[in-house]
Design goal:
The protein is mainly β. An eight-stranded parallel beta barrel has the order 23-24-25-26-27-28-29-31, surrounded by five helices. The chain has a seven-stranded mixed sheet with strand order 30-43-44-42-55-49-52. It is globular, with a radius of gyration of 31 Å. Bound molecules: (2S,3S,4S,5R)-3,4,5-trihydroxy-6-oxo-oxane-2-carboxylic acid (GCB). Keywords: Glycosidase, Hydrolase, Signal.
């Protein structure tokens, strides 16, 4: 049937038809569930009122919200049971009722009244099952139906991801819905999709063609004469086009329909700056439209786009550099079971950063995410979780294909989606016995390429209008030789030069290599990032020191290199926010902190740096917001300030800075950053930044603990000192409001160590100092991970008085762990050859032995934090002297705190 086009005058007059009550009903059923872990019982058949061992919960829920943060390696990966009493109204008896799950990780069986409704494999896509035949309705004298859901997050070699740098939280962690439709309805059995698929084969500034494909199911007992009415509505609700298609659908039949809306005039285009959405309402009618039977609504964004190997990305005919982040779907304390508002908040944060792109990594996420992207104007790529490796089995191949199909069909109508991706760094972890250059390796690479090709072909069949992408780690030849750079339409690179290995410059060179060697292949930088633990700071940042300052330098280099290369279509920072990766150790165990935001979504300086470079409205922010408790030595023996660098982020040319009302002058901003040296004084430092000619400014209050060069200084009376040994970094503890300063050598009148050297993990290719192991029994891993080895004294020439001294130790030389779990994207980097420590030493405090025979057999246990607190009196101007007397091997010290009591 031909589309009917309406004149603008008529359009404004037409409003949406009223929705009728008896159409499709969809209601969440998240409340009042019961949960228990596996105890060997089959709970599909047990009665509804379980007495013991069941926990009352509501959805979304995961059973791993807390065990992923404890000191026990691993987290529960197994079976969990959910039960719910479900009341279904009597008037649904003749309707088609479905249970719809937005996602459950990762193998799910759903039972209704003890009978299997369906099974689903894979943790990140939605699924739904028809349940009408299994239900009891409330007029049948029975109170409730019992829904039992069995969920398993065990490792299953046939289900991706096999391994990855994130946590595979188990549970019913997304919303569950009950849906009741007329027996005549839009297809409800198509991979939990909406059953209606919209494409926009031709869009220009002048006209747009819209095609609607779908299917109508007739589950009624008789054949029906029907019509599908589809209306395209603008944002105000005016109908801009509509079309009615007649269908005769036999009993039990499913019939496809297609509606083509040619040449919609002057479409209001969708773009990041103006994410204009139309709505497409499709309705099944019977008898001249008087009886609507079913209705679905889908978003419609009119835009066109292309990727070019030389010039990057174009949206609506104009070049647009795609800049944004990746995202994981977890939050502290909640695991992956987030309320929708937190999903949406992350998309808002990308928008507020000035970003226009989100790589939804490494798996499809809650439907809220794509809705928010459509609405806020964030372009996206979505991917299935084929990460690190594949299993060469029919089961694995089939699961991947099902996942890809579900992902595409479920996300099909979102205008924000421009790319479907299907692999991430698939050659990072070669399975047992497989080497790059052995025959098994060659056979494996061939299978990976076959799977990639199958997913590529499937994606083109499912959705020829989007681009495909395959994402690799920075091993160019490996992926090229395996054929993986020629299969997808876009090659994504995850590049960490200057982090896992090499120097920053290697990043730019790598991009240029891509352009040179794959001149026809569009590319994106799909990941780049550096760890930054907001508590750690350094003025001599080094690779792998996890300080915010190193991460700042990293991003400042990378973004510039990306923007300078038009052939790079876009980039996504790894990662928007810190996320849980249970097997990670390092300064904050279980957390990957390569991010622009902390786990609870507080901005790091790098977030401001992106704002300064991306926002179009005037912007200024003083960096160090998360570093409002600082410390440092006075500039000289008699000065009362300490000059330290502060970065101000702005998109304006010049910034003026004031400290406590005193002008510190102006600095030009280069690539979004103006750099100052601020003479911090003891106590409160109020910094304020202004930009000329703009009504914007910014203020930060920083508390500074000025350390006198001579501890007996009358002007700066000694109160406390916290020193991290073997460490050039500052560590601020926001909870205890304490600041730890880097170690220094003792000088008379001052404080510091005597003798020894900085601990360095033997054979570690990338750690500049210290260890990256989880130190048990503490939240202050960073303090215990560094150490001075072989010191003979630690001295403080404090004035006479009463003090408390706390010594912190952890033995860092430890036997190797079974598996090195932390990601290693460098070249043979993390090959630390651990050895068993052999040391024994005594500690004397002002001549008194306070610790005798510290050995691994007593307190000095490997990777275990231990601390000792001692009261001490400083008398006759002798200060505090700690002597470290080694009997076997060398003495060590990880941290020291000295506090004046009175
Ligand atoms: C990667 C992976 C990502 C990791 C990241 C990292 O390349 O794709 O899953 O989390 O590196 O931080 O090592």
């Amino acid at each position: 049937m031909r589309a009917k086009f309406l004149t603008p005058l008529l359009l404004t007059a037409l409003l949406v038809l009223p929705t009728l009550a008896q159409q499709r009903v969809k209601q969440s059923v998240n409340a009042n569930w019961l949960f228990r872990r596996d105890d060997g019982t089959d709970y599909t058949k047990t009665p509804t009122t379980p007495a013991q061992g069941w926990e009352k919960i509501s959805l979304p829920h995961t059973w791993n919200a807390t065990d992923v943060m404890d000191d026990e390696p691993g987290y529960y990966r197994g079976l969990g049971w959910y039960k719910k009493a479900l009341y279904v109204p009597a008037n649904w008896q003749k309707r088609s009722v479905y249970l719809y799950f937005e996602g459950a990780n990762q193998e799910t069986e759903v039972y209704v009244n003890g009978q299997l409704a369906g099974r689903h494999t894979g943790g990140y896509t939605a699924f739904s099952f028809p349940v009408s035949k299994l239900l009891k309705f409330s007029n049948e004298g029975t109170a409730a139906n019992e829904v039992t859901v069995k969920v398993n997050n065990r490792h299953n070699p046939d289900i991706p991801p096999l391994s990855a740098d994130f946590t595979f939280y188990g549970g019913l962690y997304r919303d569950v819905y009950l849906l009741a439709a007329d027996p005549v309805h839009f297809d409800l059995d198509n991979n939990a999709s909406s059953g209606v698929f919209i494409t926009t084969p031709n869009v220009s500034a002048e006209t747009a063609d819209v095609v609607v494909n779908g299917a109508v199911t007739n589950d009624a007992a008789t054949s029906r004469k029907l019509a599908v009415l589809t209306q395209v509505l603008d944002r105000e609700g005016h109908t801009v086009a509509q079309q009615r298609t007649k269908l005769s659908v036999g009993a039990g039949q499913k019939l496809a329909f297609k509606q083509t809306f040619g040449k919609l005039r002057q479409p209001h285009l969708w773009s990041p700056d103006d994410p204009y959405l139309y709505r497409v309402i499709s309705r099944i009618e019977e008898g001249n439209g008087s009886k609507p039977l079913d209705e679905v609504t889908n978003p419609l964004g009119l835009r066109w786009f292309r990727f070019d190997a030389d010039k990057g990305f174009f949206l609506n005919g104009k070049p647009l550099k795609l800049i944004g982040t990746n995202r994981h779907q977890d939050f502290p304390g909640l695991g992956n079971a987030l309320p929708n508002a937190l999903h949406e908040r992350d998309v808002q944060l990308i928008k507020q950063m000035g970003g226009n792109f989100l790589r939804i990594s490494h798996y499809p996420q809650d439907p809220t995410v794509l809705h928010a992207c459509d609405r806020l104007g964030i372009l996206t790529s979505v991917e299935i979780p084929v990460v690190n490796a594949i299993t060469d089995s029919e089961g694995f191949f089939n699961t991947c294909k099902t996942m890809q199909t579900e992902m595409i069909r479920q996300g099909f109508n979102h205008p924000s989606v421009v790319i479907w991706n299907y692999m991430n760094e698939v050659l990072l972890r070669l399975p047992e016995g497989i080497k790059k250059d052995n025959a098994a390796g060659q056979a494996y690479f061939k299978r990976v390429a076959q799977l990639a090709q199958q997913l590529e072909d499937l994606t083109h069949r499912e959705d020829p209008s989007r681009y495909t992408m395959l994402v690799n780690h920075g091993a160019f030849d490996l992926y090229r030789d395996a054929g993986l750079t020629s299969i997808p339409m876009i090659v994504g690179w995850n590049l960490y030069q200057g982090w896992y290995s090499g120097e920053f410059e290697g990043f730019a060179q790598y991009l240029d290599q891509h352009h040179r060697e794959l001149p026809t292949k569009p590319t994106m930088v799909t990941e780049y990032g550096a760890d930054s633990d907001l508590r750690l700071h350094s003025f001599q940042p080094q690779r792998f020191d996890k300080t915010q300052e190193y991460a700042n330098r990293y991003h400042q280099y990378y973004l510039k290199a990306i923007l300078e290369r038009p052939f790079v279509a876009g980039s996504t920072v790894w990662n928007l926010a810190e996320f849980n990766s249970e097997s990670r150790q390092e300064a904050t165990p279980h957390i990957n902190n390569k991010s622009l935001l902390t786990a609870d979504r507080q901005p790091k300086d790098a977030y401001f740096f992106y704002q300064a470079n991306l926002l179009k409205t005037p912007f200024v922010k003083i960096g160090s917001r998360g570093w409002t408790l600082r410390s440092g030595p006075a500039a000289s023996a008699d000065s009362l300030f300490c000059a330290q660098p502060v970065e101000v982020y702005t998109n304006q040319p010049i910034v003026r800075l004031q400290l406590n009302g005193k002008d510190l002058g102006s600095q030009p901003a280069t690539f979004g950053v103006a750099r100052f040296r601020v003479p911090f004084v003891n106590g409160l430092n109020q910094l304020s930044a202004q930009v000329e000619g703009q009504p914007i400014d910014d203020q930060v209050d920083i508390q500074f603990k000025l350390l006198p060069q001579k501890l007996a200084s009358a002007q700066l009376p000694f109160t406390e000192l916290n020193v991290s040994l073997g460490d050039p970094r500052y560590f601020t503890d926001p909870k205890l409001q304490q600041v730890w300063v880097p170690e220094q050598a003792y000088t008379p009148g001052g404080w510091g160590y005597v003798g020894g050297q900085v601990f360095k993990l033997p054979g570690s290719g990338r750690l500049p100092y210290g260890s990256d192991r989880n130190i048990l029994g503490t939240d202050y891993d960073a303090i215990y991970e560094t150490q001075r080895v072989g010191l003979t004294q630690f001295r403080l020439d404090v004035p006479d008085g009463e003090y408390e001294v706390t010594l912190h130790f952890a033995e860092l030389e430890a036997v190797p762990q079974g598996e090195q779990l932390v990601y290693n994207l460098g070249n043979g980097a993390n090959t630390a050859a651990d050895k068993k420590a052999s040391r024994s030493f005594d500690v004397l405090l002002n001549g008194q032995p306070v610790l005798s025979d510290l050995v691994t057999a007593n307190y000095l246990q490997p990777l275990q934090a231990v601390s000792f607190k001692f009261p001490v009196s400083a008398q006759q101007g002798r200060g505090i002297i700690l002597d470290f007397k080694a009997k076997t091997g060398e003495a060590v010290l990880n941290g020291i705190q000295v506090k004046r009591l009175y």
